[in-house]
Amino acid sequence: MYKLATAVLCWVSGSLVCGGFLEYDQNVLVPHDWRDAGRVSAEEELQLTFALKQQNVEELEDKLMKVSDPDSPLYGKHMSLEEVSSLVRPSEVTWKVVYGWLQSHGIRDCDTVLTQDFLQCTMSAKQAEELLPGSRFHRYISDNRSVLRSSAPYSVPDEVHLHLDFVGGVHRFPLKVQELTQATPHSKHSKAGLHLGVTPSILRQRYNLSASDVGVAANNSQAVAQFLEQYYHPADLTEFMSLFGGSFEHHSAVERVVGTQGGGKAGLEASLDVEYIMSTGANISTWVFTNAGRHESQEPFLQWMLLLSNMTALPWVHTISYGDDEDSLSTAYMTRISTEFMKAGVRGISLLFASGDSGAGCRHMGKENAFRPSFPASSPYVTTVGGTSFKNPFKVTEEVTDYISGGGFSNVFKMPDYQASAVNTYLKTVASSLPPQSYYSTSGRAYPDISALSDNYWVVTNRVPIPWVSGTSASTPVVGGMLALINDQRLLKGLPVLGFLNPRLYKLQGTGLYDVTDGCHLSCLDEQVQGKGFCAAPSWDPVTGWGTPNYPKLLTVLLD
Ligand SMILES: *[C@@H]1O[C@H](CO)[C@@H](O)[C@H](O)[C@H]1NC(C)=O
Ligand SMILES: *[C@@H]1O[C@H](CO)[C@@H](O)[C@H](O)[C@H]1NC(C)=O
Ligand SMILES: *[C@@H]1O[C@H](CO)[C@@H](O)[C@H](O)[C@H]1NC(C)=O
Ligand SMILES: *[C@@H]1O[C@H](CO)[C@@H](O)[C@H](O)[C@H]1NC(C)=O
Ligand SMILES: CC(=O)N[C@H]1CO[C@H](CO)[C@@H](O)[C@@H]1O
């Protein structure tokens, strides 16, 4: 059901002639679960998002590293959105050129964000196709959901090429959920009935959260972001807390929903995120960002990124359980989205992404296979969360690798300095048992950074308690809630929030975390690696990162 790859257009004359193609390496294949419902009519309304070239991106990165490095005099000196805006906003020339180009096509209905580095414009399909030569907009349908996307790569005229990073709303289909799985008892654990499921009280016991470890600070908050047509139901949260809540103080409702929270059935992912961030980050005000923007031509994840650049007051911690294969996205897009992560980090916002549920992943390339890193998990400017299971599934014990835990090395992003020593130590220590080097690039950003239990969660969805829910979608809000609790204690002491955690996390060298040293994760089922990716080891590893939080100890070392 795949379309022919048309991105190879770039190579037509024997060399790279991508002059007009901002995203020459973007996968334009239609995912198999979307059906082409035909070309849209000329008058059909589209909304495209133009990512304008920013200024001072290197300086932004330098600032981010300084405000996030506990040994820097600038540690914790976060910037306001206005300050970020004056640093990165596009030059006047960029604005003039891009605006002039749009106006010359009769496109005037445009909106921007506070940082002025995105323009979102409404136009007809005819105008869009004339503006972006090569594009041909179709309607695609999947599961009662419809989007407008181009079936072929777009180009832009030479004079605007230098002033844009990419155009959103043309290619990328809505992100897929990091396959949250619901095992049937027989498939995974034979003595199902006796198995210990993960609940708030089990998590709080394992991670040493006492009943008094709850949020107290007045202006603290945390958030989860959703990008599917998924809703959580307030009644589910109430039932969940009464079934599994135990004895800690917690909120009974979400504080704020940003976006449209419809009335449909609750989604498993949405219920899980809300129920678990509110269990570790107990008594902390919680926001839900849900499928921001509902125009059929929008990219939901990109809409969320725009929102972050358009809101001055945001929660300090965000957890996001979505991701896509790096190889399906253009380098221009991933690079720009990573810059957006820097913009958030420099403001003191912690972004946590699930590491994925396919271990090292597998990409089939002709006769060869390779591991398949996932983005945004592979961005150097976010904290990526892997997954673990209890060693003895019938008791609260030490943790081992959950074989699904996403991890590995980016093929796009270079290894950041903050992790070089930890990763190189791992590579040296386990050198003799590493998978063949042709499967991954050891010079890339390695992930995950941290982890938590990801196996056998209880979730209440549509008023029904559901067991056996697994995935790094579960571990991510659990870690997020604990970081929000640490922020809470920092705020009470008058300290700045943690912000982008990685530089500080890697300096801790595992202090305050339970090291996970057992087990390997999944990868290609071929003769060379036989389904085995990387293996956990003492200290940092690309399966469970530094390990899982021992809350009181982690709090102690992060409280100055
Ligand atoms: C950004 O916020 C302003 C003010 O609330 C609003 O008018 C504008 O539409 C927003 N921009 C986008 C792209 O949504
Ligand atoms: C989704 O379902 C509703 C009601 O069943 C229907 O009105 C709507 O057209 C459907 N949308 C798509 C894109 O199929
Ligand atoms: C955490 O819990 C474990 C197991 O209950 C216990 O041994 C330990 O003393 C607790 N506290 C800390 C700070 O590790
Ligand atoms: C819960 O949070 C509120 C502030 O939002 C605080 O006043 C209250 O004391 C907290 N509850 C507990 C048990 O700490
Ligand atoms: C994220 C959040 O809740 N921020 C609030 C902090 O307090 C200020 C002033 O009281 C509010 O305006 C923010 O919305």
What does this structure look like?
With about 550 residues, the protein is α+β, with helices and mostly antiparallel strands. It has 2 domains: about 1-55 and about 90-170, no CATH class; about 195-560, 3-Layer(aba) Sandwich (Rossmann fold). The chain is about 25% helix and about 20% strand. The chain has 15 helices and 28 strands. The strands form 9 sheets. Strands 9, 10, 11, 12, 14, 18, 19 and 22 form an 8-stranded mixed beta sheet that branches. The protein has a 4-stranded antiparallel beta sheet with strand order 3-4-2-7. It is globular. The model is unreliable at about 1-15 and about 185-190 (pLDDT under 50). It binds 2-acetamido-2-deoxy-beta-D-glucopyranose (NAG) (5 copies). One 2-acetamido-2-deoxy-beta-D-glucopyranose binds near residues 141, 144, 145 and 146.
